[in-house]
Amino acid sequence: MVVGPINQLKGLLLPIAAGLVLGGFNAWVLGATGATVVALLVGGFVTWRTTRYEVGEDRLEIRKGLIRRSRRTIPLERVRGVDVTSTLLHRLLGVAVVRIEAAAGSAAATEDGKLDAVAADEAERLRRVLLHRKAVLTGQESGPRAAPDGGAPEAWESARGEAQAPPVPEDDTVTYFAMPRSWYLYGALSLGYLLTPFAVLATLFGTVQQTAGELANDFVVDWVTSSDRGFLLVAALVFAGVLVLLMPVFAVVSYALTHWGFSLRGRDGSLVAERGLFTRRSVTLERRRIRGHELLDTPLERTRGAVRLRAIVTGLGDAANRAVLLPTGPRPVVEDVVGRALALFGGTLKRHPRAALFRRLTRSVGPFALVAVVAAALGAEWLAVAGAVLAVLGIPLGVDRYRALGHGYDGERVSVRSGSLSRSQATVERSAVIGWTWRQTLFQRGPSLADLQVTVGAGAGGYTVQDASIGESVAFAAQVTPEMVRPFLEDPGTPGRKG
């Protein structure tokens, strides 16, 4: 009855404040504001009274609504994940949000269930019960599926917990990682977190524009036109310098708020990643749906030997956030966690042909060199100089992109690596490979290169071996999945067969 009205009130704070200020706090405005608050409180009470959920033998059912009623049924065997989230308000009240992600009838859709503001203990119990029953229904785990007397396995469970809850499987938690405080400094290596001051400024300007509007614009215009230009230039330089100095500070603070107390645990056949200071989020990924992992880094992170870890999971929505298994940290520690929680790639990555280096240099240097030549011919000296500088800077970028290329197979897992400004090494199980796609452009045909996409039913859906030798890539695919590739290969040793 508290969380719902407050969450709705947050979206109305600015309009209410603007109405009170512009309306001069007259009786009509105050009355309308009071009526809005009362309506929100009544709505919260009605929602609390009409919300019910049932954990049945093979389904989760959620009912809510007084005038407009809804009844959602989610088959437990289609449950893909159960996440538990707690904002600061939820944590102060001792409650949490339970989000259930489930596969729908079509491959591209999902049907989700959400239970907001259940007791924190009940949220954790629900997570374990739902995943346990899903495992029983899909044959991954043995367990009771009906009451001994032949009746219903559970009675109705309301939002107030009036009925008896189903049994919870025993806890078998294993902690793979608990984030040390020193890791928060790695936030200064992330470009996204370094840009936090600019995001804060954009939000602040947007808020001022919505509330003050023309008054703020007139004030800024008057101040700029009435101030000395020299003073404005100094002020702009000082402001830019302060922003640059604050970038790493804001990055570390933002990184710490997002990943505070990060932990990775194994529990009930799943990996559970938990993080966050003000908003605490717990994401559960079933091990059987994890088909591999990705190690990601940037040039700035590589200077400190740091990487990030993300799971490659089948049928996962919002994978960029929900698939995070470890934030940025030292590579040896991350690889140790991978070895204990998942499986580390045990092979070596093969280097790509020298022709791939030429293509990388052509892409990173060629466009800027062309701009420099054209600009010089047209007499645009500044543009020619800029193009020449960027062309020279493109040489180490092209070399680094070539050095990042690699692919390998250790007998159980396939690993593919590429990228420079955003480098990724994806490792997937052999059983996850469901197809191969070769693509060859006009410029790749001369040096006999091709892009080979490893198609998997998880993660991004495919990972590309860029600019590999066409013959070597075919042999690589035939080594990983011979039953899939060899029927299409030439076999001159067999009489009567043609390629």
Task: Walk me through the structure.
With 499 residues, the protein is an alpha+beta fold. The protein has 17 helices and 20 strands. The chain has a 7-stranded antiparallel β-sheet with strand order 6-5-4-11-10-9-8, sandwiched between helices. The protein has a 6-stranded antiparallel β-sheet with strand order 14-13-12-17-16-15. The longest helix is centred in the middle third of the chain and has 31 residues, at 229-259.
Describe the protein's topology:
Elements: H1 3-10, H2 13-22, H3 27-50, E1 52-55, E2 59-64, E3 70-75, E4 79-86, H4 88-93, E5 95-103, E6 110-119, H5 120-137, E7 157-158, E8 174-178, H6 191-194, H7 196-211, H8 214-226, H9 229-259, E9 263-267, E10 270-275, E11 280-286, E12 290-297, H10 299-302, E13 306-313, H11 319-322, E14 324-330, H12 331-341, H13 354-378, H14 381-404, E15 406-409, E16 413-418, E17 423-429, E18 433-439, H15 442-445, E19 449-456, E20 462-469, H16 470-480, H17 482-485
Antiparallel strand pairs: 1-2, 1-7, 2-3, 4-5, 4-11, 5-6, 8-9, 9-10, 10-11, 12-13, 12-17, 13-14, 15-16, 16-17, 18-19, 19-20
Helix pairs in contact: 1-3, 13-14
Note the main attributes of this structure.
499 residues, alpha+beta, seven-stranded antiparallel β-sheet
Outline of the structure:
The chain is α+β, with helices and mostly antiparallel strands and about 500 residues long.
